[in-house]
Amino acid sequence: MNRRKLKIEELNRLSIDAFRSAGKIPLVVVLDNVRSRNNIGSVFRTSDAFRVKEIVLCGITGTPPDPEIHKTALGAEDSVGWRYAGDTLSAVHELKEQGYEVWSIEQAQNSVSLDTFVPQKEHFYAIVLGHEVHGVQQEVIDASDGCLEIPQFGTKHSLNVSVTAGIVIWDFFNALR
Predict the structure, then answer these.
(1) Could you tell me which residues come within 8 angstroms of residue 100 by beta carbon, excluding any fewer than 6 positions away?
(2) Which of 63, 118, 168, 171 has its CA 20 to 30 A from that of 148?
């Protein structure tokens, strides 16, 4: 069995223009005051890999062009659609008015375990990922349709925001593609 590592040119990746016109999953990622530019870049890269429709960068969340974002995004900040919103709550209300079901990714009372949540193909979704220490703002949780929680079985009670984004985006991609 041949297990030769593939060269970049053998991966048949889309160009930025082809990516922009390619079909996307009906998922918007909202970053609520994410402070780490490396986390932001990682979310861009994951969003590119799984054809997320858009990223909304809110509050103190950095925006491209930024060398720290680029370090982990590796150009995905040029392919994935994004916009800046000064206020996360306003962005959530706007998404809901556009017909999106908004889910905060947070450990909260009555949260839904990600392993039991089944996104429906005919729905449009937005997920909100919060600040590395404080999480999603309570007022944003209150405005959301619900909270999704990743089940965890170790001694820690949280995951890095970019790791969380990867897990949740992958789960939505599998259900919605």
Answers:
(1) 28, 124, 125, 126
(2) 63
Question: For each successive 10 residues of the chain (177 residues), what is the average pLDDT?
Answer: 91 93 98 98 98 98 98 97 98 98 98 98 97 97 98 95 98 97
Q: What is the pTM of this model?
A: 0.96
- Topology of the domain comprising 16-176: Alpha/beta knot (3.40.1280)
Assess contact for 126 and 30: CB atoms under 8 A: yes
Domain boundaries, the chain: 16-176
- DSSP-derived letter for residue 83 is E
Can the peptide bond before residue 65 be classed as cis, meaning omega within 30 degrees of 0? yes
